[in-house]
Amino acid sequence: MTPAARRGTRLGRLVGPVGAKRTPFVLLVVVLLGSGLISLLLLNSALNQGSFELSRLQRKTTELTDEQQALQQEVDQLAAPDALERRARELGMVPGGNPAFLSPDGTVRGQPSPAGDGTVAYRAPAPAGPGPRPALMPAPRPALVPLPGPAAASAPPAAGAPAPVPPPAPAPALVPPPTAVPTTPTSGR
């Protein structure tokens, strides 16, 4: 063997074992880089999904805000005095009369008048634009029909006899009974 050949075999022995020692390190670096890229891909996907969810929720919030504003406008329209008066008349209500006030000492202030005496407590503003104005007239009072009392249902009619006509029930009270007004005792000074 020539000295050059000997030198080449010696170099081959030196290079061989060193290259084998680098292989696990290179594999470790490749695995770390691959896992880093995969984790970045998963993180990016999660962020994109979150941004889609955020935009969907913002759209829903906008829709609900619009709906809430529309409902608030409807409530404001229905709560206007002219709308309340119109609805009350449709239900058969009449404007209240002049109220009377009771003082703590028992004196009456004001002249009471019955409700529905033809006076209008509130007149709605004229509608905008030309056209006929609605006349404000008190609505007719509904007729009260008495219902048969419990005594008529408890007595069965005799055989062959005509059914008895139940006596008319007392008319229901249209005004609630007066209630006692609590007073506070005063010390005699």
What can you see in these coordinates?
With 189 residues, this protein is mostly helical. Helices cover 48% and strands 2% of the residues. It is built from 3 helices and 2 strands, in the order ααββα. The protein has helices at 3-78, 81-90, 150-154; strands spanning 101-102, 108-109.
Beginning-to-end CA distance, first to last residue: 141 Å
* Helix-and-strand structural type: mainly alpha
Tell me, rounded to a whole number, the average pLDDT. 73
The helix/strand order is HHEEH
Write the layout of secondary structure elements.
Blueprint: H1 3-78, H2 81-90, E1 101-102, E2 108-109, H3 150-154
Antiparallel strand pairs: 1-2
Give keywords.
189 residues, mainly alpha, two-stranded antiparallel sheet, 2 strands, rod-shaped
TL;DR of this structure?
This protein is mainly alpha-helical and 189 residues long. The protein has helices spanning 3-78, 81-90, 150-154, and strands at 101-102, 108-109.
